[in-house]
Task: structure prediction
Amino acid sequence: EAVVVEMGARGIGHIDLLCSIARPTVGIITRVEGVHLELFGDIESVARAKGELVEALPVAGLAVLNADHKHVAAMADRTDAAVLTFGLTAAADVYASGVVLDDELRASFRLHTPWGESDIRLGARGEHQVPNALAAVAAAGWLGVPVDAMADGLFGAALSGLRMELVTTDGGVTILNDAYNANPTSMVAALRSLVALDVRRRVAVLGTMAELGDDSASQHEAIALQARELGVEVIAVGEPSYGPDVRHVPDVEAAVAELSRLEAGDAVLVKGSRVAALERVAQALLD
Result:
């Protein structure tokens, strides 16, 4: 039997406290990114806080670390547990090669592990889910799960609601509803997923990215620039920081009105922090 626990932090010491309760034997660190900077101050503090997980692991435990992220890979020096790395190059212990996306944004790839290889197709949408799958494989393999069983599990796994939901309206408009939450990293991943769709026109309805601190304005502007470079039109809902080169609307109703001229072959991404509740846009387009 196993219990899988997500440990969140809004400051130094929070994960350490959670570890004193849960007493984890396997710890997975997927990424260290500039999120919740309003609370942490800088990315080094985020790394310090997340590293409390690997510090709490027993000598007989396992730290699963992302080899492609320098702040995560450096945590190997902060634990007495065994270490397995995952990533998108052969330098990692567990890695993927030949990653491709299908029309439903589900990734397929060749899985390479110390316990064998397999062809994998993910049930969860988005190319950014590949490293997450590799992290799960590293933990499962160390725990003795056969590679074939892992392949079946990854194919059957699904995301929770409002995360990469892909639906098509009766009028032929594709909606990518990723409105559960947003930060700069997940926003870029969602925009790239939108671009991967084989459609005629791409529109992103974007809400605020909360808790970014003093760097909030530049982070929003950077997302607007990324969208423009990807050929994605942006409708910003109640967030002026996306800058002058996007369409701005005050609320959900105005955003829906802006989308009234969508046609078959168009695709719309809906994404923002939880406070924006932009799933209301997706629902209005489906009603």
